[in-house]
Amino acid sequence: MVWRISLLLSLCFCWLHKSQAELWEKDMTDEVYIEASTEGFESVHLECLVDSMRVKLELSEEFEGIFYTRGSYKMGQLPCFNDVESGTMAELTIPYEGCETKSKDDIYTNVVIAQHDDFLIFPGDLAFEISCTKSSEDESIASIGLADPDPSAKELPKHKKSTVTATRSVAFTPNDVRPKKAPKAKTSKCKKVKGTSTNKDEL
């Protein structure tokens, strides 16, 4: 009798453990989807320097999280990782030869991520692809576009990056996200037309 009870309890435990594992897998794969966020920031400014690129992120609300380049999370220190304790600004000066910066044909590219939680990426976290291109005139072309903060996600197609470009330095704002929102049409208020009243005695 005792061994039957033990067997029954073991089967119940295995079933419960399997159900919890399936529920966890469902929660993490089906319901939590991370994609490029277009809200929560005021602007991103990129400046292409001689041997590095300086990026400044201005957020819409108080930020207590981490700001780092993709692939540099484990480093946990500057220049590739900035643990922001408070404020609405986050900044990094990223060397061309370091911090997982990729280079090809004088184009230096990296992805910066603003993560609200110190350990996990959640929907609403921000990511931007930044690049500096050194031209033959000894000037740099700066570019900023949206990116997906999820390291396992595929690269965004060009039309979703909404990339902006300028010489030496460039700023990216939510207004640059394409397709741009159409301005609200102004509605004209109809004015009441005053009519003339007729007195019965005048008829």
UniProtKB/TrEMBL annotation:
Keywords: Signal. Residues 47-203 form the ZP domain. Residues 163-172 have a biased composition (Polar residues). The keyword Ribonucleoprotein does not apply. Coiled coil: none annotated. It comes from the Eukaryota. The keyword S-adenosyl-L-methionine does not apply. Residues 146-203 are annotated as: Disordered. Residues 180-194 have a biased composition (Basic residues). Residues 1-21 form the signal peptide. This is ZP domain-containing protein. The lineage of its organism: Eukaryota, Metazoa, Ecdysozoa, Arthropoda, Crustacea.
